[in-house]
Amino acid sequence: MKKIAVMTSGGDAPGMNAAIRAVVRYAVRNDIQVLGIQRGYAGLLDEDFIEMDFSSVGGIMEKGGTILRSSRCPEFVRKETRQEAAKILAKHGVEGLIVIGGEGSLHGAMFLEEEQKVPVVGIPGTIDNDIAMTDMSIGVDTCLNTVVDAIQKLKDTASSHERAFIVEVMGRSSGYIATVAGLVTGAEAIVIPEIPVNYEALGNKILKERERGKINCIVVVAEGAASAYTVARHLEHRIGYETRITILGHIQRGGSPTAFDRLLASRMGVAAVEFLKRGNSYVMTALQGGKIVPVKLDEVLKQKKSLNMELVELTALLS
């Protein structure tokens, strides 16, 4: 294999740059040329390629976002579009493709190899930690640290004014961020897609806490479960607190990646190139039991990663 390409696609996640850096430098050390595809699948269709070498990835590991930029590409769901993408890759002499992204991006990679026989390796990069068969995805740890830092600051002002804060975090189909952030910040409650919320029971619980002398309240809401405004509307007249709403939004995607994410991304980037070198494509790099292993893309994408309900129970037990 003489030439590969790397792209980031879909929602950005802290640590993607560290993965790009690892892919490029390990490939170059193995005499493999690397093309960077800018703006994901849309950039692939536009032939928006740049040549990458050691110097082009210098100093990027500590930066959030992705230097290759990213975008959504709805037209990639069409087989004809994927066929055109394969022709473009062949035209540029690309013999293997590394795709860094979430579920949608990995689906695109899977179809490229299934239909067009383009060797692909996926690297899971998504803050939601909703990709099956890997313990963690790139960006999750940094996102959690960002959310925890924000909640701790909100608790300071909540205590000063004896208020309740409804904090909305990302998690369209997974309550992982809300659950872990709620657990480690001592939130009074979490509202997640996996469990229907009983507002009457939740309100009574918070009111009881208030009556025994609690001076602040934090409720962490995953965006896929409910709007923070909806939760506040159900609770504010029941819980004995003046209520405020904070939606953390896209601040959760940004920031310099943590040491964990930099390490995970570096290991996965090197592994992705190594898998392509060995002819082991149609796989995703996965963290399992501390090791980076290849797992088949179709097996990953036919599963839905379940939230560990022990964490949910622990959150309720300790709140």
UniProtKB/TrEMBL annotation:
Gene Ontology cellular component annotations, sorted alphabetically? 6-phosphofructokinase complex
Is Magnesium found in the keyword set? yes
The catalytic residues are 128 (proton acceptor)
Q: Does the keyword Oxidoreductase apply?
A: no
User: Which residues are Mg(2+)-binding?
Assistant: 103
Q: Which reaction does it catalyse?
A: beta-D-fructose 6-phosphate + ATP = beta-D-fructose 1,6-bisphosphate + ADP + H(+)
Protein name per the record: ATP-dependent 6-phosphofructokinase
- State the encoding gene: pfkA
